[in-house]
Amino acid sequence: MALAGTNNIALAGGLRDTGVEASLQGFIPEIWGASIQDYMEKSLVFGNLAVDQSALLANGGDRINMPKQSELTATDTYGAGVVETLIDTNLAFAKTSAIEDSYTLDVNKAIHSAISITDIAKVQTSYDVMNMYTSKMGYALAKKVDQDLARCLYESVSFNHSHGTADGDNAGNIILLNDTHDDLIIENMGVANMLEQIYINDGVASDYVMVLNPAAYASLFKLAEFARYDTVGQSFGSEVPFISGYAGKLGGVEVVVSNNFIHTTGSTASVATSVPKGNFSANGVTDESEFLLGYLVAKDAMHIAYSQGLKARVQSDYHLPSLSTRFVADSVYGCLVTGSTTAGNKKVFALTSPAS
To answer: What is the pTM of this model?
Structure first.
Protein backbone atom coordinates (compact mmCIF):
# COMPACT_ATOMS: atom_id res chain seq x y z
CA MET A 1 0.00 0.00 0.00
CA ALA A 2 1.53 3.32 -1.10
CA LEU A 3 1.20 6.12 1.42
CA ALA A 4 0.54 9.11 -0.82
CA GLY A 5 1.53 12.52 0.46
CA THR A 6 -1.21 14.70 1.94
CA ASN A 7 -1.43 17.95 3.81
CA ASN A 8 -1.41 16.13 7.13
CA ILE A 9 1.19 13.42 7.56
CA ALA A 10 1.98 11.64 10.81
CA LEU A 11 4.63 9.01 10.43
CA ALA A 12 6.11 9.25 13.89
CA GLY A 13 3.53 10.67 16.28
CA GLY A 14 0.43 12.86 16.61
CA LEU A 15 -1.07 15.01 13.91
CA ARG A 16 -0.68 18.79 13.73
CA ASP A 17 -1.72 20.68 16.80
CA THR A 18 -4.17 22.98 15.01
CA GLY A 19 -7.79 22.95 13.93
CA VAL A 20 -9.84 19.80 13.78
CA GLU A 21 -6.74 17.62 14.08
CA ALA A 22 -6.09 18.77 17.65
CA SER A 23 -8.40 16.06 19.02
CA LEU A 24 -6.19 13.43 17.35
CA GLN A 25 -3.05 14.48 19.23
CA GLY A 26 -3.12 11.29 21.31
CA PHE A 27 -2.26 8.98 18.41
CA ILE A 28 1.10 7.28 18.99
CA PRO A 29 2.07 4.61 16.41
CA GLU A 30 4.55 3.06 18.84
CA ILE A 31 1.68 2.06 21.14
CA TRP A 32 -0.16 0.41 18.30
CA GLY A 33 3.07 -1.28 17.23
CA ALA A 34 3.56 -2.81 20.67
CA SER A 35 -0.03 -4.02 20.77
CA ILE A 36 0.18 -5.51 17.26
CA GLN A 37 3.44 -7.25 18.15
CA ASP A 38 1.80 -8.70 21.28
CA TYR A 39 -1.02 -10.25 19.27
CA MET A 40 1.44 -11.36 16.62
CA GLU A 41 3.50 -13.30 19.16
CA LYS A 42 0.41 -14.90 20.70
CA SER A 43 -0.74 -16.17 17.29
CA LEU A 44 2.53 -17.70 16.12
CA VAL A 45 2.91 -21.50 16.12
CA PHE A 46 5.94 -22.25 13.96
CA GLY A 47 7.30 -18.82 14.83
CA ASN A 48 7.27 -19.52 18.55
CA LEU A 49 9.18 -22.75 17.97
CA ALA A 50 11.97 -20.91 16.14
CA VAL A 51 15.05 -19.53 17.86
CA ASP A 52 14.97 -15.74 17.54
CA GLN A 53 18.35 -14.51 16.24
CA SER A 54 17.29 -10.85 15.86
CA ALA A 55 19.89 -9.71 18.40
CA LEU A 56 22.59 -10.54 15.85
CA LEU A 57 21.15 -7.78 13.65
CA ALA A 58 21.20 -5.13 16.37
CA ASN A 59 23.85 -3.16 14.50
CA GLY A 60 22.15 -3.53 11.14
CA GLY A 61 22.72 -5.93 8.26
CA ASP A 62 20.50 -8.43 6.50
CA ARG A 63 22.48 -11.69 6.68
CA ILE A 64 23.53 -13.97 9.51
CA ASN A 65 26.16 -16.68 9.04
CA MET A 66 25.89 -19.54 11.51
CA PRO A 67 28.59 -22.24 11.78
CA LYS A 68 27.68 -25.65 10.39
CA GLN A 69 29.86 -27.78 12.61
CA SER A 70 30.55 -31.40 11.81
CA GLU A 71 30.36 -33.97 14.59
CA LEU A 72 33.62 -34.73 16.40
CA THR A 73 34.66 -38.03 17.96
CA ALA A 74 36.56 -38.81 21.16
CA THR A 75 39.21 -41.49 21.69
CA ASP A 76 41.15 -42.98 24.58
CA THR A 77 44.02 -40.80 25.72
CA TYR A 78 46.18 -43.69 26.92
CA GLY A 79 46.69 -46.69 24.69
CA ALA A 80 47.10 -50.41 25.38
CA GLY A 81 45.97 -50.00 28.96
CA VAL A 82 49.23 -48.22 29.95
CA VAL A 83 48.44 -45.48 32.45
CA GLU A 84 51.74 -45.27 34.40
CA THR A 85 53.58 -43.21 31.83
CA LEU A 86 52.75 -40.32 29.56
CA ILE A 87 55.48 -41.16 27.06
CA ASP A 88 53.39 -43.32 24.73
CA THR A 89 49.93 -41.82 24.44
CA ASN A 90 47.30 -41.68 21.75
CA LEU A 91 47.05 -37.93 22.07
CA ALA A 92 46.68 -36.44 18.58
CA PHE A 93 45.11 -33.44 16.92
CA ALA A 94 42.94 -33.89 13.86
CA LYS A 95 44.07 -31.66 11.03
CA THR A 96 41.74 -30.48 8.35
CA SER A 97 42.39 -28.34 5.32
CA ALA A 98 38.71 -27.57 4.85
CA ILE A 99 37.02 -24.64 6.56
CA GLU A 100 33.83 -25.53 8.43
CA ASP A 101 30.80 -24.73 6.31
CA SER A 102 28.08 -22.34 7.49
CA TYR A 103 24.34 -21.79 7.36
CA THR A 104 23.12 -18.51 5.92
CA LEU A 105 20.03 -16.75 7.24
CA ASP A 106 18.98 -13.97 4.87
CA VAL A 107 16.52 -11.37 6.14
CA ASN A 108 14.69 -10.98 2.85
CA LYS A 109 10.98 -11.32 3.60
CA ALA A 110 8.80 -8.21 3.80
CA ILE A 111 5.10 -8.38 4.65
CA HIS A 112 2.45 -5.86 5.64
CA SER A 113 -1.15 -5.48 6.75
CA ALA A 114 -2.96 -2.21 5.95
CA ILE A 115 -6.21 -0.61 7.04
CA SER A 116 -7.88 2.78 6.77
CA ILE A 117 -9.86 3.95 9.81
CA THR A 118 -12.27 6.87 9.97
CA ASP A 119 -12.98 8.86 13.14
CA ILE A 120 -9.61 8.04 14.64
CA ALA A 121 -10.39 10.12 17.75
CA LYS A 122 -13.18 7.71 18.67
CA VAL A 123 -10.93 4.72 18.07
CA GLN A 124 -8.25 6.17 20.30
CA THR A 125 -10.64 6.70 23.20
CA SER A 126 -12.04 3.16 23.04
CA TYR A 127 -9.66 0.36 23.93
CA ASP A 128 -12.10 -2.28 22.70
CA VAL A 129 -12.14 -0.82 19.19
CA MET A 130 -8.36 -0.34 19.17
CA ASN A 131 -8.00 -3.90 20.43
CA MET A 132 -10.09 -5.18 17.54
CA TYR A 133 -7.89 -3.55 14.91
CA THR A 134 -4.54 -4.37 16.49
CA SER A 135 -5.49 -8.01 17.02
CA LYS A 136 -6.55 -8.40 13.38
CA MET A 137 -3.37 -6.79 12.06
CA GLY A 138 -1.18 -8.78 14.46
CA TYR A 139 -2.90 -12.02 13.46
CA ALA A 140 -2.46 -11.22 9.75
CA LEU A 141 1.29 -10.71 10.20
CA ALA A 142 1.64 -13.83 12.37
CA LYS A 143 -0.19 -16.02 9.87
CA LYS A 144 2.11 -14.94 7.05
CA VAL A 145 5.25 -15.45 9.18
CA ASP A 146 4.03 -18.92 10.18
CA GLN A 147 3.36 -19.88 6.58
CA ASP A 148 6.85 -18.79 5.55
CA LEU A 149 8.39 -20.89 8.33
CA ALA A 150 6.19 -23.82 7.27
CA ARG A 151 7.49 -23.39 3.72
CA CYS A 152 11.08 -23.45 5.01
CA LEU A 153 10.34 -26.72 6.82
CA TYR A 154 8.64 -28.24 3.79
CA GLU A 155 11.53 -27.42 1.47
CA SER A 156 14.00 -28.70 4.06
CA VAL A 157 12.53 -32.22 4.33
CA SER A 158 11.30 -32.81 0.77
CA PHE A 159 12.89 -34.05 -2.44
CA ASN A 160 12.37 -32.19 -5.72
CA HIS A 161 10.06 -29.62 -4.20
CA SER A 162 8.28 -27.39 -6.71
CA HIS A 163 8.77 -30.14 -9.33
CA GLY A 164 12.40 -29.08 -9.58
CA THR A 165 15.72 -30.72 -8.86
CA ALA A 166 16.31 -29.06 -5.51
CA ASP A 167 16.50 -31.36 -2.48
CA GLY A 168 16.29 -30.09 1.08
CA ASP A 169 19.19 -30.53 3.48
CA ASN A 170 16.97 -32.83 5.57
CA ALA A 171 15.37 -34.69 2.64
CA GLY A 172 15.34 -38.40 3.44
CA ASN A 173 14.77 -37.93 7.18
CA ILE A 174 11.40 -39.66 7.35
CA ILE A 175 9.36 -41.31 10.10
CA LEU A 176 6.32 -43.44 9.27
CA LEU A 177 3.49 -42.79 11.72
CA ASN A 178 1.39 -45.68 10.38
CA ASP A 179 1.71 -48.61 7.98
CA THR A 180 -1.08 -47.71 5.53
CA HIS A 181 -0.62 -45.69 2.35
CA ASP A 182 -2.51 -42.35 2.31
CA ASP A 183 -3.59 -42.70 5.92
CA LEU A 184 -3.69 -39.79 8.35
CA ILE A 185 -4.25 -41.88 11.48
CA ILE A 186 -1.32 -41.99 13.92
CA GLU A 187 -0.76 -45.49 15.28
CA ASN A 188 1.17 -46.83 18.27
CA MET A 189 3.81 -48.20 15.95
CA GLY A 190 4.28 -44.71 14.55
CA VAL A 191 4.95 -43.31 18.01
CA ALA A 192 7.47 -46.10 18.56
CA ASN A 193 9.16 -45.27 15.23
CA MET A 194 9.44 -41.63 16.27
CA LEU A 195 10.97 -42.37 19.68
CA GLU A 196 13.41 -44.83 18.11
CA GLN A 197 14.67 -42.17 15.69
CA ILE A 198 15.07 -39.63 18.48
CA TYR A 199 17.30 -41.89 20.57
CA ILE A 200 19.22 -43.30 17.59
CA ASN A 201 20.05 -39.67 16.82
CA ASP A 202 21.58 -39.17 20.28
CA GLY A 203 18.60 -37.10 21.43
CA VAL A 204 15.92 -37.25 24.09
CA ALA A 205 12.19 -36.68 23.80
CA SER A 206 12.34 -33.24 25.42
CA ASP A 207 14.70 -32.04 22.65
CA TYR A 208 11.97 -32.28 19.99
CA VAL A 209 8.48 -31.00 19.15
CA MET A 210 5.85 -32.67 16.96
CA VAL A 211 3.98 -30.25 14.70
CA LEU A 212 0.86 -31.94 13.30
CA ASN A 213 -1.76 -30.91 10.78
CA PRO A 214 -5.34 -30.85 12.14
CA ALA A 215 -6.35 -34.23 10.66
CA ALA A 216 -3.32 -36.04 12.07
CA TYR A 217 -3.80 -34.37 15.44
CA ALA A 218 -7.47 -35.38 15.55
CA SER A 219 -6.45 -39.01 15.02
CA LEU A 220 -4.61 -38.94 18.36
CA PHE A 221 -7.95 -39.12 20.11
CA LYS A 222 -8.22 -42.69 18.84
CA LEU A 223 -5.16 -43.53 20.94
CA ALA A 224 -6.19 -44.33 24.51
CA GLU A 225 -2.62 -43.57 25.57
CA PHE A 226 -3.08 -39.95 24.52
CA ALA A 227 -6.72 -39.09 25.16
CA ARG A 228 -8.57 -39.75 28.40
CA TYR A 229 -11.84 -38.41 29.68
CA ASP A 230 -10.14 -36.32 32.36
CA THR A 231 -7.27 -34.85 30.34
CA VAL A 232 -5.54 -34.69 26.98
CA GLY A 233 -1.94 -35.57 26.35
CA GLN A 234 -1.35 -36.53 30.00
CA SER A 235 0.63 -33.38 30.68
CA PHE A 236 -1.61 -30.41 31.38
CA GLY A 237 -0.84 -28.39 34.46
CA SER A 238 2.48 -26.86 35.43
CA GLU A 239 4.22 -28.56 32.48
CA VAL A 240 2.26 -26.66 29.81
CA PRO A 241 4.72 -24.55 27.79
CA PHE A 242 3.79 -21.13 26.46
CA ILE A 243 3.45 -22.22 22.85
CA SER A 244 0.42 -21.39 20.74
CA GLY A 245 -1.23 -24.56 19.48
CA TYR A 246 0.18 -26.75 22.29
CA ALA A 247 -1.91 -29.90 22.67
CA GLY A 248 -0.10 -32.10 25.19
CA LYS A 249 2.66 -34.68 24.95
CA LEU A 250 3.05 -37.98 23.16
CA GLY A 251 5.80 -40.30 24.34
CA GLY A 252 7.28 -37.33 26.19
CA VAL A 253 7.38 -35.23 23.00
CA GLU A 254 5.44 -31.95 23.00
CA VAL A 255 2.62 -31.92 20.43
CA VAL A 256 1.66 -28.73 18.60
CA VAL A 257 -1.13 -28.40 16.02
CA SER A 258 -1.16 -25.88 13.16
CA ASN A 259 -3.33 -25.24 10.11
CA ASN A 260 -0.59 -23.26 8.34
CA PHE A 261 1.06 -26.18 6.54
CA ILE A 262 2.48 -25.38 3.12
CA HIS A 263 2.88 -27.87 0.30
CA THR A 264 3.63 -27.76 -3.41
CA THR A 265 0.96 -28.27 -6.02
CA GLY A 266 2.45 -28.23 -9.48
CA SER A 267 5.24 -25.70 -9.20
CA THR A 268 3.46 -23.38 -6.78
CA ALA A 269 3.71 -23.43 -3.01
CA SER A 270 0.35 -22.93 -1.33
CA VAL A 271 -1.41 -23.40 1.98
CA ALA A 272 -2.66 -26.98 2.36
CA THR A 273 -6.39 -26.57 2.90
CA SER A 274 -6.90 -30.33 3.34
CA VAL A 275 -3.97 -32.75 3.34
CA PRO A 276 -0.42 -31.47 2.80
CA LYS A 277 1.48 -33.64 0.34
CA GLY A 278 5.00 -33.91 -1.01
CA ASN A 279 7.86 -36.16 -2.04
CA PHE A 280 9.68 -37.33 1.10
CA SER A 281 10.88 -40.88 0.44
CA ALA A 282 12.65 -41.04 -2.93
CA ASN A 283 15.05 -38.75 -4.75
CA GLY A 284 14.43 -38.19 -8.44
CA VAL A 285 10.65 -38.47 -8.23
CA THR A 286 8.56 -35.40 -9.05
CA ASP A 287 5.23 -36.94 -8.06
CA GLU A 288 4.57 -35.04 -4.83
CA SER A 289 1.70 -37.19 -3.57
CA GLU A 290 2.85 -38.63 -0.24
CA PHE A 291 0.77 -37.58 2.76
CA LEU A 292 2.52 -35.28 5.22
CA LEU A 293 1.13 -35.71 8.73
CA GLY A 294 3.54 -33.24 10.29
CA TYR A 295 7.12 -32.65 11.36
CA LEU A 296 9.38 -33.73 14.18
CA VAL A 297 11.58 -30.70 14.85
CA ALA A 298 14.53 -30.28 17.21
CA LYS A 299 14.06 -27.18 19.33
CA ASP A 300 17.26 -25.63 17.97
CA ALA A 301 16.61 -26.43 14.30
CA MET A 302 14.43 -23.49 13.27
CA HIS A 303 15.70 -19.91 13.31
CA ILE A 304 14.11 -16.56 12.60
CA ALA A 305 15.51 -13.03 12.61
CA TYR A 306 13.66 -9.74 12.32
CA SER A 307 15.31 -6.65 10.91
CA GLN A 308 16.08 -4.04 13.56
CA GLY A 309 12.88 -2.24 14.57
CA LEU A 310 10.83 -4.10 11.97
CA LYS A 311 9.19 -6.94 13.86
CA ALA A 312 5.92 -5.01 13.91
CA ARG A 313 6.42 -1.44 12.72
CA VAL A 314 3.41 0.86 12.36
CA GLN A 315 3.24 3.85 10.03
CA SER A 316 0.31 6.12 9.26
CA ASP A 317 -0.83 9.18 7.40
CA TYR A 318 -4.00 11.23 7.37
CA HIS A 319 -5.93 10.99 4.10
CA LEU A 320 -7.89 14.23 3.76
CA PRO A 321 -10.16 13.22 0.83
CA SER A 322 -11.61 10.33 2.87
CA LEU A 323 -11.23 11.97 6.29
CA SER A 324 -9.51 8.84 7.52
CA THR A 325 -6.19 7.73 8.90
CA ARG A 326 -4.40 4.99 7.03
CA PHE A 327 -2.26 2.48 8.91
CA VAL A 328 0.32 0.02 7.68
CA ALA A 329 1.83 -2.59 10.00
CA ASP A 330 4.80 -4.33 8.44
CA SER A 331 7.53 -6.79 9.30
CA VAL A 332 10.88 -7.67 7.70
CA TYR A 333 12.45 -11.03 8.59
CA GLY A 334 14.19 -14.17 7.41
CA CYS A 335 14.02 -17.85 8.35
CA LEU A 336 16.35 -20.83 8.33
CA VAL A 337 16.08 -24.56 9.07
CA THR A 338 19.31 -26.33 10.06
CA GLY A 339 20.26 -30.01 10.18
CA SER A 340 21.26 -32.71 7.72
CA THR A 341 20.82 -36.40 6.94
CA THR A 342 24.01 -37.31 8.80
CA ALA A 343 23.54 -39.51 11.86
CA GLY A 344 23.87 -37.39 14.95
CA ASN A 345 22.86 -34.21 13.13
CA LYS A 346 19.30 -35.10 12.12
CA LYS A 347 17.21 -32.24 13.46
CA VAL A 348 14.10 -32.31 11.27
CA PHE A 349 11.99 -35.28 10.14
CA ALA A 350 8.95 -35.57 7.89
CA LEU A 351 6.14 -37.50 9.60
CA THR A 352 4.35 -39.43 6.87
CA SER A 353 2.39 -42.50 5.86
CA PRO A 354 4.06 -45.03 3.52
CA ALA A 355 4.50 -44.13 -0.15
CA SER A 356 2.48 -46.08 -2.71
So the answer is: 0.75
